[in-house]
């Protein structure tokens, strides 16, 4: 077993590529996964060939019933909603379903939250994409506990793809502004603070009620 000596500590503080013991700094400094209600989100993810960092994770609810645990991945960590929404490049929103939920109810909840948190101008500009987004879920009967949904934005194609358990559902949706609007489902101004704050890196309330 190698002891982390004063020399190794100084190497870390100095930003050296490895410690004196030969440990890669990236391995020592890597953030641990975040686990909520038995579901784990890894600290890094690759989308469209780009390395993303786990910005945060939180519980999300429908009518005060905990329905999913959601995570946000960005190229750089952001601690404010404004910074997260403005961050360019590849992005991922993803969630695990905590219980069986009607896909129609889930779709309707997402669309309601878009109306509550996005501006009229955003909704008008993204009308086609919103319809595509809603139909991706409404064409299914239900989501079961443990089902995993990913929503990935590719900056090269400027398309957002949705996948359920690794299989694409629905049609790709055009535009980075649409993905930013979709982010507001979980971090808009009328979302419960516990959910928004969790996605911004404050996981202290991640096991509480979410928005």
Please tell me about this protein's structure:
Pfam families: Chalcone_3. InterPro entries: Chalcone_isomerase, Chalcone_isomerase_3-sand, TAT_signal. Residues 35-201 form the Chalcone isomerase domain. Residues 1-29 form the signal peptide. The chain has 2 domains: 1-30, no CATH class; 31-205, 3-Layer(bba) Sandwich (Chalcone isomerase). 34% of the residues lie in helices and 31% in strands. The chain is built from 8 helices and 11 strands. The strands form 3 sheets. The chain has a 7-stranded antiparallel beta sheet with strand order 3-4-5-6-9-10-11. It has a two-stranded antiparallel ribbon with strand order 1-2. A two-stranded antiparallel ribbon has the order 7-8. The longest helix has 15 residues, at 103-117. It is globular.
